[in-house]
């Protein structure tokens, strides 16, 4: 199958929100506190799309995955308890979710590869991310993809594990 990674449009909002609702439910079923506080939500996804930060992975006309990608736009990362690997420009990604109909097909890895390609296209060699301590699925994905644990950052009153990957040119 050939998947396409592209900027999301408002027409993509209904399937994106369905994917995120399923992911929120999976996090809860896994016993995770992540995404159990009203975030993410449709308003946030609309904001991602409005600032050209929302991206979808599609299979034909079907949205199979979603993420937000930003450049140098994560204020919480300035206050890390720990040390980033680099101090320059960085790409950060949030809200990675795969449709429940596409789980187990390696699409999280595919999205991370697309995010890294986005960084390279923008001449940036650092990709940063964070996740909850109780999200073993994402922790495993980050580890397999070569991300290095750098410390803790804080969002909405809770601590999150912060990771960075330095890309080769």
TrEMBL record:
Domain N-acetyltransferase: from-to ranges: 3-169
Entry-linked Pfam families: Acetyltransf_1
Any one GO MF annotation of this record: acyltransferase activity, transferring groups other than amino-acyl groups
Alphabetical list of InterPro entries matching this protein: Acyl_CoA_acyltransferase, GNAT_dom
Protein name: GNAT family N-acetyltransferase
TM region(s), chain numbering: none
Keywords: Transferase
């Amino acid at each position: 199958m050939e998947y396409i990674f592209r900027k999301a449009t408002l027409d993509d909002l209904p399937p994106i929100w369905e994917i995120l609702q399923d992911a929120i439910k999976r996090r809860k079923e896994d016993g995770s506190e992540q995404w159990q506080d009203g975030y993410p939500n449709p308003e946030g996804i609309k904001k991602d799309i409005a600032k050209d930060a929302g991206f979808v992975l599609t299979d034909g006309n079907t949205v199979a995955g979603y993420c937000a990608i930003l450049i140098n736009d994560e204020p919480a990362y300035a206050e890390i308890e720990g040390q980033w690997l680099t101090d320059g420009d960085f790409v950060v990604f949030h809200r990675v979710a795969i449709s429940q109909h596409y789980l187990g097909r390696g699409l999280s890895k595919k999205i991370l590869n697309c995010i890294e390609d986005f960084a390279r296209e923008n001449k940036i060699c650092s990709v940063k991310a964070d996740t909850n301590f109780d999200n073993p699925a994402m922790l495993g994905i980050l580890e397999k993809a070569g991300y290095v644990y750098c410390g803790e950052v804080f969002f909405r009153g809770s601590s999150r594990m912060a990771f960075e990957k330095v890309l080769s040119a």
